[in-house]
Amino acid sequence: MGETAGPTLLGIDILWVATILSGVAAFAVMIAIYATTTVRDPMAKRVKALSYALLKS
């Protein structure tokens, strides 16, 4: 790495760290959206079985 124009903290470029952290945050948001949209309802099978049992009786 060469000489940086941005501010540094303990020898690390703060703008570079902020860029990396924003990329990690964007990736975490994408994973969270994926997890919420693809989760299966664990109660759906039970409700279906219960409604079938109630209709049959």
Separation of the first and last Cα atoms? 75 Å
- The SS-based structural class is mainly alpha
The helix fraction, in percent, is: 55-70%
Query: What does the oligomeric state look like here?
Result: single chain
Unreliable spans are: none
Tell me how many strands there are.
2
Helical stretch tally: 2
Shape: rod-shaped
Order of helices and strands: EEHH
Query: Roughly how many Å is the radius of gyration?
Result: 25 Å
Average pLDDT number: 84
| SS strand fraction | 5-15%
Number of spatially distinct domains: 1
In the sheet with the most strands, the strands line up as: 1-2
Largest sheet: 2 strands, antiparallel
SSE topology sketch:
Blueprint: E1 8-9, E2 12-13, H1 14-38, H2 44-56
Antiparallel strand pairs: 1-2
Describe the structure.
- This protein has 57 residues and is mainly alpha-helical.
- It has one domain (8-56).
- Helices cover 67% and strands 7% of the residues.
- The chain has two helices and two strands, in the order E-E-H-H.
- It has helices spanning 14-38, 44-56, and strands at 8-9, 12-13.
- A two-stranded antiparallel sheet has the order 1-2.
- The termini are far apart.
- 0% of the residues are buried.
